[in-house]
Amino acid sequence: MGTNDIFILAIESSCDETSASVIADGKVLNNIVATQSVHEKYGGVVPELASRAHQENLIPVVQEAILTAGISKSQLSAIAFTRGPGLMGSLLVGVSFAKAFAFSLDIPLIEVNHMNAHILAHFIEDPKPNFPFICLTVSGGHTQLVLVRDHLDMEVIGETQDDAVGEAFDKTAKLLGLPYPGGPLIDKYAKEGNPKAYKFPITRMPELNYSFSGIKTAVLYFLRDQLKENPKFIEENLADLCASVQYSLVEMLLIKLKAAVKEYGVKEVAIAGGVSANSGLRDTLTKLAVEKGWNLYIPKFEYCTDNAAMIAMAAHYKYLKGEFSSMDVTPLAKMKI
Ligand code: KG4
Ligand code: ZN
Prior knowledge:
Layout: E1 7-12, E2 17-24, E3 27-28, E4 32-35, H1 47-69, E5 76-84, H2 88-105, E6 109-113, H3 114-120, E7 133-138, E8 143-150, E9 153-159, H4 165-175, H5 183-190, H6 213-229, H7 233-264, E10 268-272, H8 279-292, E11 295-297, H9 301-304, H10 308-320
């Protein structure tokens, strides 16, 4: 590293991961993540507990990022943070810290859109997608199809009208008695099950939009009926239940992705967000890409779930364009791409 390197410290605190990362001239040096386990027993993220955990974890996480980058605070060129979308209380912790730090070091502040950053996670390592590409961003909070024309030029071409797909995974997992977050557990049990064992709805929304709220209601009523006949129905059929739920969710995701590729005539296809870890989605998509001649991009798992490296990547492109934020910036819980 030269002495004139641009070092940016990025903070992510939109939901339940507290994360910091240092990027040097576009190269991510580290990605420190403190996961909040406090939410497990509640079956979902509790906003106030998340804010408190961010308060507790943020400075140690930042200290570790600066230390392992091998730099001193005085070498930082800018401070980046997630402005939204996310939980207001969680965002406030990150924004307030980022402002105070930038103010004390007298360096620029860079706001980053979390959804934009999930997509820019594809630029942390090779191979990188070519523009334009279509990205399916699937997480606990979002399900979006995005046309990406350039690093900072993105358009949402379809999205969920209700629950996010990760939420659908987690809520059905809860109905099956699995702990939060249930998505990875559905994935695990689905590997042993038959995806055609039960038929859960495949909701078709107009255009490129999604709806995932129907499946949890369908599963709820289905289980209620089955449990009346056999109280051990879930435990005896857990693998088949998980495989069948996963099948419907993945089908719904892919129907609209195929439609988007067709409509926009783009064969560069990427997925981002925590649910891109799902092996059913990965396997089906990999086969589909071969069949259709798409170039498919899936980031490393650590860059799929919430992390500050993706915030740092977005900040790098904004720094190059001189897109800085003013010191009176506030979080936007429903920030749009
Ligand atoms: O992107 P992310 O880490 O956080 C948000 O911004 O929401 O995504 C978390 C979501 C959770 O709903 C979790 O259950 C889901 O991603 N998830 C999975 C898998 N791994 C994480 N869902 C299905 N299969 C997985 N293997
Ligand atoms: Zn996220």
